[in-house]
Structures
1.
Amino acid sequence: MSAAVGPKGRMSLKYALLGLLRERPAYGYQLGERLQERFGPAWAMNSGHLYQTIKRMKKEGLIEDVDGAEHDRDDRHVFAITDSGEAEFQNWFEKDLGGLRLLRRPLLVKITLAGPERLEDALKQIDAYERDCAGQLKEFSRQRDEIPDEDLRVRADHVLLRLGLSADISHLKAELGWSRHAREMVSWLLNQDAVWPGRRQRLGSSSEEMRDRRSAREELFGRIARRQLRPMQDGSDQDDAV
Amino acid sequence: MPARGYSEAMLRLENVSKRYSRPDGDRVALDNLSLQLERGTIMGIFGPSGSGKTTLLRIAAGLRRPDRGIVTYDGERLDQMSGAERTRFRRREIACVWTSRSWQEKLSVRDHVAMPLLVDHCGRRSAERRTREALLACEAEHCVDMKLGELSDGERQRVAIARALIAEPRLLLADGPASNLSLVEQEGIMVLLSSLAREARVAVLITDSNAEALLRADPILYLRDGKLVNPEPMSELGRVYRLPSGGSRRSAADA
């Protein structure tokens, strides 16, 4: 799951890896584990992507393999940061993040382009998304609760992982709220005789019907609302009050 | 101008208890329960069957008297009225939508909806006009010439709400108004009830065994063994976490 808002620029994986290798050298596969252990579950990724990045970083001379052994797979090599990698990391660390990039939700694009015929299908996808968010939220909250409490000595990595998890948790809470909102809006829209972009507007009996319903509702609900402002009276004269 | 004594609280239950005696011993239906329902709001209460939902609605409707506790309706003590007083009062002020499968299937929607008016000696013509208006407001005007037995589940609920609204009540009590409906119909009913609360300022109390069917209500409370349990967490995540797996919900495609 990607962050709802994040810094511009896509290379934060590179810097995350450089940062981890600054602390100590690691096997390729260890880096994948360590990303999640340190930054939280949002950093789960497929190993292909990870090793591709590692390969590129090696080619750029930012990291080197230090075990000297012959392996055909990068995950078996031990990597360490080079001087040029260190310089790159320092340079990145001092730079500003460069503004925010908002999340583009594929689900929102689907809803927006569903059109009246597919809106009900979109609703099912919203439902699934909502369940997904709730499930992950539960899981991440559990993970956060499982981080041991500090006793004698504060462990910085525990504190900071808690911070990482809380980033994902607050994001998921927001997504959950949004998807609930989306579900309400879309279900409501389903019941409306709405005008859709690119569609010819239906006129005639159906909008007349809507108008009748609306005015009946205004009339009846308005009368009931006015009742609220009067002290209670005996029912006998109520029927003629219209 | 609001009348003197106007208050936002429409219905108030204070420390209400109710037991039923059964051959196998007493059963507690409501246990020292308090709640306040305000004008223009929809309160949703969910809980398993036997949790006391129906008893709560019956007491709120003035159909039953609590063993202990106070029931106030817009400042009037419902629990102290005589049976006849309560009946008169109820007809004027409170509408109930029960999950009734015991409708007379051959009765026409027109007569069914107009019944409360006809009982109240309203003129035929005025009754006809108000029936049409209530059905229109509930988007069920196309059902007016149908028999009750011919209605779909969604139409039944809309007709039931139209009938409840015809006497222009200030409190609406509904037992599972959106249960057994498709997602879309469910939403349609909840939209209707929320505009009833918002525009007519009616206080609405709905119950369901499934929290999902109450999602537009606010607050949503959980009733268990006659007590309201920990309503706070329902506001945020609790709503989703507590959802039963949705056995009663049919796919939206059935609509």
Note: The first strand of chain A starts at residue 5 and ends at 7.
2.
Amino acid sequence: MTVNFAFVWPAIAAAFLASLVEAVEALTIVLAVAIVRGWRPAGLGVAAGLIVLALIVVALGPLLDHVPLHLLQLVIGVLLLLFGMRWLRKAILRAAGIIPLHDEATAFANETAELREQARRNDARLDWIATLTTFKAVLLEGLEVVFIVIALGSGRGMLLPASIGALAACLAVAAVGLIVHRPLARVPENTLKFSVGVMLSAFGVFWTGEGLGVAWPGADLAIVAIAAMFLVVSGAAIVLARRPQTRALS
Amino acid sequence: MMILLRELAGLFVDDGALALAILAVVGLSGTAAMLMPEVSLAAGAILLFGCLAALFSSAACTGRR
């Protein structure tokens, strides 16, 4: 399988941006636990989450080589469509003001308040709860990162570039988080989710089509045109979804 | 464990209607690809425009509600 350079940079960018969003969300929870309960239980949960993730990758990774390419493209494509369009829909609704924007500062405040309340009720069990909380956060957000890397990388032999993009994002967020010791509330999360949603949905349509035997015009470059269409339609959906509220306000 | 599994499913399905619409579009596109293998672009067009329509209507309908 040869690496196509028309795909490499979009795949790295999509993996980097998507992983950035996931890493920021995980960091918020890890910081909340570390501040309320200390770095030991938080670190234990993070380490356990990373070990389980590594085991999942090691166990499932080699299986990908045994799946026929068209079937792999179809399955990954459909999952990418479900995953990417879910992100895109949410980003559209947030941009239109239908649902509130995800606020890391609020998420951090909620998480610390919940942990403090649990500490008040039952202090002895709290280290376990704190460890489990960070474990779950790292595992769930990490699984999303693993899925994105596999989805973007496995269809065209680009697992390495996609992994590099994802790893760079996770390391960058971890480094900034360790330095500032605060949730990264200034990251424009909805804009990132919107951009990544467009890219993942475009990859999803492309892979699904390839899996079904569609010969896209322009071959790999068709993905740029598909992404442009998703961008236009999403922009129109934001305008249309916003209109009734604006009317009600006026 | 159940919470983990539920959250895992939630990664792919948030709005059930949108997920169903996507699967229906993929099914329709697959049928077109099987029935007209020589015009594979028709299946691609169904897939692309079907997904765009599903996304647009899902977001617009939620906005209007």
Note: Chain B touches chain A through 35 residues (CB under 8 Å).
3.
Amino acid sequence: MYMYLPIALTSVNYLVVMGLGLAVGLLSGLFGVGGGFLMTPLLMMIGIPPTIAAATDANQIVAASASGTFSHWRLGNVDFKMGLYLLIGGFVGGAAGVQVIKILRASGGADFLIKMTYVIMLGLVGSFMFVESLHAMRKSKKRSGSAAPAAAAKQKKGGFFAALPMQTYFEKSGVTHSALVPLVLGTFVGVLAAIMGVGGGFLMVPVMIYMLRMPMHVVVGTSLFQILFTCIEVTYLQAYSNQTVDFILAIILLVGSVFGAQVGTVLGKKLHGDQLKILLSIIVLAVTVKIVLELVMEPSILLSYAGGH
Amino acid sequence: MKRMFMNSARCALAAAVVFSGLAALPVQAAQALTCSVTPNTIPITFSYHGAQLKITGRSADPDDLIVTITSEPVDTALKYKEKVGGLVWMKKGTLEFKGAPRIYMLHSTAALDRILGAVEREQHLLGYDALRGHIRIEDSTGSPADEKWFDEYLKFKKEEKVYDLQEGTVVRQHGEEGNTYQVEVAWPYQAPPGTYTVAVVAARDGKVVDRASANFEIKSVGVTAALSKMAFNQPGLYGIMAVVFALLAGLAVGAIFKKGGGSH
């Protein structure tokens, strides 16, 4: 039942850890998020030091997102072209974000600002998604499945975005955008993700749905494709510069998460896009409430090791 | 500055008492105090989940005994949380806990304050109050931090299971071979690999009259040791191995699921 972790220097019940992997992998396959926001604090709760929890989680996400990307690709749900543009933007943004955070940290009191921005952002994104998908579900019930309104809504946009140069057709998503749009949005999410110390799936998914107007199922596959590359980079850098990746912990986690990701993909296929959106928005709102409670309530222990979110 | 000086003087004194052995102690014990610990080497394998230590030895009849298990003092930096803007709890900065042992476990034959006076306890680093005077807490500017952080430190370490104090757990027996004592200690798996010192102190009339000590070692072996060595000595290779393994595992399970008809 117990297994000793050579880098975390602690012993864990491997059934519990596998269960955590399964649950987070399920979310990953279903919504296209990495799940680090959930996994890192859970690992810390079972006694893994924060820096090792965050780095090892990235290693586990490599497996879960490879598994998820593979099955979404088979289902034709990965827009590689869009993913690549977002990825390039994300890398640039991530590097810029690391510099921004250095400046912010030096000026002091930045942590407060970062946490608040994070909470407000998650709260807004979650509420917006919830209301919007509820609205869409009601509408589609009334019109009994007519696709016309969605198409009309798509046509309505344009304006500024349509006037940009380098207009490109993204076949898998069925949308036309200037290549600059995913590049800039990817950079934006990359900066925020680096500042907040999270993978960014939670921000990238809504950006793809609402700003890039991609269909929900393609969003999930494309987001996983992107997360895969981000987490490969993070795992390698953490192992190389900080020695914080626990290989054994990662293996136990990924045994659960790769299966979870498969189940999530299958389950996602059975759900309607709006149902997926509403579920995701509920999770985003629950995470927001959890963070607010953590911030407001007095912690039982006021000291901790450095690292973590 | 004065406090720092006093603290360092106290440290030096405590260290002198701990490490110079028995030279300074009056030899009044009828039977010399001994100490041994089994096992004296504990291997960390995959299934390691802590260990059961047995500490035994001989002692003089009327003496009370205090057994401590400690490691070399180290400096530990920890983040601390405080209320910001009267509303939210945030990590505000770093506190340095200087000269604090990673592990501090104490067992005794009776209540510590009944066995020894405060001065003796302080001098021999016995009990949490003695540690309070010994561990220096500094903020990032190097100035001494509020005393309340020692209580928080204690809470943190107890939660980690690496600080523990149990009175009345050391059992004495009178047999044909003389007077012996014994205590069983549940060694926490949270304690990192390293060499630890078991020290036994005999007390009579509120004074320390004899001392004995023994060491034991916790060390990684086999695959656990090899992985940890690789992570630190060949971090690049270790990183590539972690990534490649995760990728292969993910793709393999993806392929198996498809073949097995899981998605259709």
Note: Residues 1-29, 260-264 of chain B have pLDDT under 50 and may be disordered.
